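Dear colleague,

Thank you for sharing your sequence with our group. We've completed the structure prediction you requested, and as agreed, I am returning the results in plain text so they can be pasted directly into your records. Please verify that the sequence below matches your submission; if there's any discrepancy, let me know and we will rerun it promptly.
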Amino acid sequence: MAKIQNTFKHVEEEKEIKIPTKRGFWRNLAEWDFTVDQDFLFRIMPYVLYVSFFGIIYIANRHYTERVVREVTHLRQEVEEYQIDYHALQTRYVYDSRRQVVAKKAERLGLKEREKPLVRISE
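Please find the predicted structure tokens below.
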């Protein structure tokens, strides 16, 4: 039988363990290759047109909204002016339709107020 001898095991050199690190957005962006080729342009063209279309729609809608708001404020001021005119005319009408004022205006025309009450004619 063969003799078994105790021997030391040769330990291999310890290997460095690389721990994967999370790469941040800015680091990825800094290391990104910014070369633009024709294939890349054709791939992103639909997206660029899509975003441009909605950008133009957004700008047009903004202009339309501002114009409508200006018109509404102008019309609101105009309505306030008409309300003031209406109240002034209504006040003047109420004043002019009073009995004393009507009597004074009638006297200028040569009409007099009747002193006797009206007589009802009956059959």
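Summary note from our side: Helices lie at 25-30, 38-96, 99-108.

Kind regards,
the structure core
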